[in-house]
């Protein structure tokens, strides 16, 4: 009695789920019971695969949905790791980040944008979407202190920089967005309190600022869909999904996250607010730029010197939120 053909273990790259697929029936296995055990596919077996031969010696190999061979627990060539280490060692921004105790070299990208466009001022409220590991929040907190506040949001758990409030969750979640908006409506929540300056009475400067806000609101037309000025001065979006290595897919994901951040900015941003987002270059970048121009009076595209030349990333800096622009106008396709 011949042993039954093994099942093929298939891992879907989209969601990482694992399925067990039975082999096609043949004369040798039609009447035989199929065992639930799975076996690795031999690297040299060709299950209808047209992919080129593998030039490595993986310990275990499985097939993907297309039948091509993919490796698990591959013994990677150490040369690529050495190249990455060498690049990190030679990178002046990596050295500067370590010297200045920044979370990552990405801090210098935001610093360049701030120097060129004047994004931050003391006392502002800043929301940093996709804040992990926290380099942008570090820069923002340093610029808006001591009376400002920074709120970071990320789907991954991460230790925030000192003084930064954080929310863990996806910006695609309506529940998280509502919690974040409620948190932002209280101008004192998230601020670093100093007991030396706490007082129950309002100072003359505080009363003067309130009068200025009331006077400004009298002539200022409604903003967005609510008609009320938001509580946030700056919305930063450094959100990015895990790159797949497929440029079209990575570009589409980054555009979708930019639109999500734009929709949130419409709900919370002040009239004189600033919106900064990162995007991978691609065919849909023109649509993104046109939507930003519809929503803001000033839109600039920047490639900071600290951004690696081979990287496809660029940064859009948008200022001066237009009045009476609805989400239906900006996103006629819906979904945001």
UniProtKB/TrEMBL annotation:
Ribosomal RNA methyltransferase FtsJ domain location, by residue?
Answer: 103-319
Any one cellular-component term (Gene Ontology): mitochondrion
InterPro entries registered for this protein in UniProt: RNA_methyltr_RlmE, RNA_MeTrfase_FtsJ_dom, rRNA-MeTfrase_E, SAM-dependent_MTases_sf
Name the UniProt key words of this record, in alphabetical order.
Methyltransferase, rRNA processing, S-adenosyl-L-methionine, Transferase
Report biased composition (Polar residues) as residue ranges.
26-35
Q: Which SUPFAM superfamilies match?
A: S-adenosyl-L-methionine-dependent methyltransferases
Q: What's a Gene Ontology MF term here?
A: rRNA (uridine-2'-O-)-methyltransferase activity
Q: According to its UniProt record, which protein family does this protein belong to?
A: Belongs to the class I-like SAM-binding methyltransferase superfamily. RNA methyltransferase RlmE family.
UniProt-recorded name of the protein: rRNA methyltransferase 2, mitochondrial
